[in-house]
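Practice problem 4.
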């Protein structure tokens, strides 16, 4: 007796955790700075922490009212009907629901390369296939309709990430609309706005009003600092509303998650501080890092460390295929107590992604990284 053939399935590679790294290096977790997973450097909204405490005592009940309350508040915020809000166990859970609601066995989804790994994973879980469109580093990873449509061939879902992980680039709303216009009637365009709060541009939710072929993904993991409670949601076309009840897990978002989410939505101060500090940190990194960076619309910055290392130490790039310059830099930074994301698993072995920390954390990361690059 064995599981089915899972050889085409890949394992999600998360950024490394503080406890894990501290144990391995024999360091105090308090001395480590973790800028590897785009988490909120200020932690959760204090209001959410309070709500989680208060909810602890009623954790024995299935969530019902809280789920409805949160759905309604989000519907209100976006000007859609509550049935158009699909809560899930993180944004990842919502991706599963969208795959379940669309894919017949063998249907394809179109995903960005480089890009967020879970799009393809979720499609494969649901017996779908995966095709890629390619973002060109030579063109600064620009996101436009031509790039996506060049590789489109009737896929059931087209995944757009805006702002994009790991590059920080974004699609103009016109480009999203063009893609939705140019793709077939059976294609759903899913716009992942996990980092949507970190820039001022309009949300693709505007398009959900007018069309039946665009859905938007949002999460509480990033700006609200609730990655650990697992809460995200989709905003789907009106025509799709009924499908949710047919594809979701009973009680898709936990009581604790829903109460925390409701509290976080009301905590504008925490969200504002988070967004402002991220904007500061991006500018700081562009200006002070001794490595090329790409301008970002999110709470992280992609930096190219390959070329810098190659010129100072040609062995780095020749060493072996498995350890590119980014993993060497990330390892050395880690020994110095700063954890960043080696982008090898994104297919960018010459790049690292640095999450925007607090001002102190960001300054320390930049100064350690510059030392690593110059040594
Ligand atoms: C973080 C992230 C998500 C959602 O993460 P959850 O924690 O599951 O809500 C979705 N897409 C991208 C590109 C992300 O970086």
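Answer key:
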């Amino acid at each position: 007796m064995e599981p089915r053939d899972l050889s085409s399935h890949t394992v999600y590679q998360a950024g490394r955790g503080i406890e894990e790294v501290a144990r391995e290096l024999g360091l105090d977790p308090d001395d480590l700075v973790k800028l590897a997973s785009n988490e909120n450097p200020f932690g959760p909204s204090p209001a959410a922490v309070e709500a989680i405490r208060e909810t602890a005592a009623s954790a024995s009940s299935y969530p019902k009212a809280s789920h409805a309350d949160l759905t309604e508040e989000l519907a209100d915020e976006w000007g859609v009907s509550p049935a158009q809000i699909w809560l899930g166990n993180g944004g990842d859970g919502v991706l599963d629901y969208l795959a379940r609601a669309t894919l017949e066995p063998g249907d394809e989804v179109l995903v960005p390369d480089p890009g967020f790994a879970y799009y393809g994973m979720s499609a494969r879980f649901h017996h779908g296939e995966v095709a890629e469109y390619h973002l060109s580093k030579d063109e600064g990873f620009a996101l436009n309709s031509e790039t996506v449509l060049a590789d489109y061939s009737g896929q059931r879902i087209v995944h757009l990430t805006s702002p994009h992980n790991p590059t920080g680039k974004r699609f103009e709303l016109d480009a999203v609309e063009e893609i939705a216009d140019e793709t077939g009637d059976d294609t759903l365009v899913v716009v992942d706005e996990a980092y949507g709060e970190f820039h001022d541009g309009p949300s693709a939710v505007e398009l959900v009003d007018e069309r039946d072929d665009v859905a938007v993904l949002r999460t509480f993991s990033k700006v609200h600092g609730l990655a650990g409670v697992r809460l995200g949601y989709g905003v789907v076309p009106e025509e799709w509303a009924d499908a949710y009840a047919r594809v979701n897990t009973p009680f898709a978002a936990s009581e604790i998650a829903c109460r925390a989410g409701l509290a976080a939505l009301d905590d504008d101060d925490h969200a504002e501080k988070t967004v402002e500090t991220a904007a500061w940190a991006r500018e700081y990194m562009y200006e002070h890092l001794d490595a090329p960076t790409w301008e970002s619309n999110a709470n992280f910055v992609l930096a190219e460390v390959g070329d810098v290392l190659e010129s100072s130490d040609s062995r780095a790039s020749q060493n072996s295929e498995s350890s590119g310059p980014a993993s060497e830099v990330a390892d050395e930074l880690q020994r110095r107590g700063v954890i960043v994301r080696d982008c090898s698993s994104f297919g960018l072995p010459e790049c690292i992604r640095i999450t925007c920390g607090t001002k102190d954390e960001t300054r320390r990361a930049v100064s350690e990284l510059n030392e690593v690059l110059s040594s």
